Amino acid sequence: MLHRSETTERLRLVYCRTGDESYCLDMSLIQSIQRYERMERNPAPEGPLGWLDRQGSRLPVFSMAERLGRPSPAGATSKGAILVLAGKPDPWGLAVDRVSRPFDVTPDKVMAVPEPAQSGAFQSVVLTPEGLVLRLLPDQLHLAAQARESGPAPVRKAPVWPANATGVGRILLFGARDIATQGVDVVFGLSFSQVLEVCSGLPHVAVPGAPKHVLGMVQWRERPVAVIDIVGLAGLPSVSYESGARILIVRPGEGPQVIGVPVNSGIRWQALPLPHQPWRRELPLDLRYVRGIFKMGAEVLLIPDLTAIVDTFGTPAGRATRAWG
What we know:
The chain has helices spanning 4-9, 64-68, 230-233, 306-313, 316-319, and strands spanning 11-18, 21-26, 30-35, 39-41, 50-54, 57-63, 81-85, 92-96, 98-99, 103-105, 110-111, 122-128, 131-136, 170-181, 184-191, 195-199, 204-205, 214-220, 223-228, 247-250, 259-262, 267-271, 277-278, 290-296, 299-304. By secondary structure, the chain is mainly beta.
């Protein structure tokens, strides 16, 4: 049995599911859970999904999938549930496909969404038995919501991972699959000392409302890591990322920030120095996040500026969070 002090430290949540995706919500915000059949459907294409009659009042009901911009299987919500939430000034309903029984998590499992992947609809991310699950900030899903900054989430301090000492004097190269620009192949190069791990099999979590080139998050060593498509940022065809694909876990600078870089082509490393010379021709690329561009044999080598990428996506303007209203 838990002591009172232990109980108050725990956070009670429920899973809210739409299609194959799961989010979580504080149980303290839920006044009641109603059957979907009780809702009066809105025949108009605009406005709420419908209304729920509750003690003589008509509460607006919104679809979680629709408000998050996520696909929902046809007919799934017709057998779902409506969460009546304690909104201000009046309660309102959130329609989901399924809702779980309550479960508890301890504070060390609640973490901030990595800055590059932050979105106004989420308060934090929780490490659950199902993996990383985004914790909803439900006020932002109300149609009349005003965009606002969420308060700081209670988080444990992120560790600073040391540089890869075995990588000094080496560079890791990876290509952009099937991409040739002006007849030359493009490869990207990262200092091997920045690469903490080459992984595969990490489950992927989408973050609705995240910037275009932020592909969601993965869980790496008990922490959430934002996945950034640096190939797409350079103006080349974007790299898609699916759960289980190969990904580089990279430390951009000296701080605690860690990002994931997906790769869909061969990885190789070479000892430094490399035979190279400056590239002097123009290329149809976006070089804002490129530190250098070189000719290396038959290839063009791009050195991405990871610090600039993280600094840009870590600002409110760079995150370009969606106004959920």
